Amino acid sequence: MITTQLDPSPAAVPLPEETRARLMKVGSANVANVLLKHGFRNVYLLGVAPLAPEQGQLVGRAYTLRFMPAREDVDSMANYGRDDNKHRRAIEECPPGAVLVIDAMGSTRSAAMGDMMAARLKQRGVAGVVTDGGYRDAPAIRETGLPCYQKQAAPPATPIAMHPVELDGPVGCAGVAIYPGDVIVGDAEGVVAIPAALVDEVAAQALDAVEYEAFAALHIARGRSIFGLFPATPESRSEYDQWVAAGRPSLEDAQ
Q: Could you confirm whether the keyword Magnesium appears in this record (predicted)?
C-alpha cells in the first residue's frame, strides 16, 4: 500500500530564533521602512488595528484562510458545523507558532472568528490572528490573551455573509498580498507582512534602525537638531558606531 505524504505548510517552518528575537524588539513601522528600502511599498495592512491595545508583540509565519461571499443554498449553520468546513479546519490546522491570516474581503457583515475559536487557537499555541474583517465576542477574545487584529467588530454569524473557500494559499488581506510562510509582525500600531525570502535580512536591519533611533533620541532630548542626525548620515553613523563600541553610555557619562 502506497501512502502519499503531504508537504508541510510553509507556515510550519520555524523562524530562526535570532530572527524571531529581533522582530520581537522592532515596530511595524520600522519593518515597513526597511521593506521600502528593498522596493516593497505595499506591505502595511492599513485599517487593521489591535483588538486590545495592551496585547503583546505578534510575530509568526502566515497560515491563510480565504473567504468569498456566501450564498444561501450553500451557507447554513448546518453546513458550517461540518468537520470539513474550511473555517473550522483552519482553527485545527494552523500550525503552532504561526499567525492565522484571514482574508475576509474587507467585509464586516459577518464574523471572521469568535471567542471559542480564539480560545482553541490559544490552547494550540498559535501566535495570533489577523483579519481585514472583524470578530464577534470581542470581550471574550481579549480574555484569551491571543493577539488579534481586525478592521472593526463584526458580531453576525459567519455564514450570513462569508463562505470559506481556501486554506494555505495566497490571499489579499487589507489590500496586501500575503503568501503562506510570509512573516507577520504586529504591534500596538498595526500589522506588516514580510516576504519570506527577506525575513532574516529585514529583521537585522529593522533592529539596527531601532537601536540607532535610541541613540538619536538621546541627542534630540538634549536639544540637538535632526539635521545630520535623523535620518542617519555617514557621519552620524560613525558617531553611533563609536557610541556602541563604548558600551552605549548616557550622554552625560560620555562627556
A: yes
**What's the predicted TM-score (pTM) here?**
0.93
Whether 125 and 234 map to the same domain: the answer is no
Domain residues for 216?
A: 202-254
**105 marked among binding-site residues:** no
Q: Looking at the structure, do residues 19 and 144 belong to the same domain, yes or no?
A: yes
115 known member of a binding site: yes
116 assigned binding-site residue: yes
| Residue range 124-154, pLDDT digits in tens | 999 999 999 999 999 999 999 999 999 999 9
- The reply to whether 155 and 177 lie within a common domain is yes
pLDDT tens per residue, range 202-225:
999 999 999 999 999 999 999 999
Amino acid occupying residue 46: L
Instruction: Tell me, yes or no, whether 150 lies in a domain.
Output: yes
Q: Are residues 139 and 179 in the same domain?
A: yes
Ligand-binding site membership of 137 (annotated): yes
- Residue 187 marked as a ligand binder: no
